[in-house]
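Recap from last week: sequence in, structure out.
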Amino acid sequence: MRIAIISDIHGNATAFEAVLEDIEHHAQVEAIYCLGDNIGYGPEPEKVISMLISHQIPSVLGNHELAINQPETLPWFNPAARTSLEKTMDLLSETAKAHIAGFSLSMTIGDCRLVHGFPPDSPTTYLFEVPPQHIQETLSEMEERIVFVGHTHELLIVELGGEDITTNPLNRGRIELDPQKKYLINAGSVGQPRDGNNKAKYIIWDDGTNELNVRFISYNINDTVKKIYQAGLPEQHAWRLL
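Predicted C-alpha cells:
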C-alpha cells in the first residue's frame, strides 16, 4: 500500500492545493490521510475543509479542531491562536463544523497509527514534551509498527530498536526503514512549517518497499500572506510563513 500523509494545513488552501497537485502528478498513491489541524492560523478554513470532503481525505482530530468542537478549550491557546480560532469559527459553515465533529482521535491504516499529537490518541500532547523513556515504552507497547504524528510542524523520525531510541531530523527525499524496528514519524506541516524551510511538506509511505519519501513543495506564499491580512487574522501568522 502506498499512501500520502499530510498534516497541519492550518487554513492555508494555497499550500494545500499545491500539495494535492504534486500528489496527483507524482505520488501515485492509493489514498491520502491527514493528521489534523486543518484549520486555525490560516485565512481559508472553509475551503480547506471543503477540499478534504471533495477529495475524500479522512482526518484525525487536531487540537485546533478540538477547540471548534469544544470552545471551552480556547483558554488553553495563546492569545494569537485564540484570536485566530475565534475568527475561524465565524468563517466555518455549519456543514464544515459538522464534518469536523466527525473526526476521530486516531486511525489505524495497515501497520500504521495516525494521531495528531502523541499515541495512542492525544491531539494535544507535543512530542517534545514527552520524556525519551515514555516514548520508548509507548512504542514498545503499540501494536502498530509505525506511528505518524503532526502538531509540532517539524519533520522528525524516532527509531526504536530493542530498548534504544534515536531521534533525528527527517530530511527531504527518500529513506528506507528497517522492517525489524518501530518508528514514530512527524510529518511536518503543509500550511505552516516551522523547521526553517517555508515550503509545504508531506510524506509518501510505501509499505511494500518500506520507504518514506519526504516531499517539499513550493507554493505562492505571498498569496496566503495577503489573505491573512485581508481576513483580519493576527499578523504573526502571516510573517511566520516567510
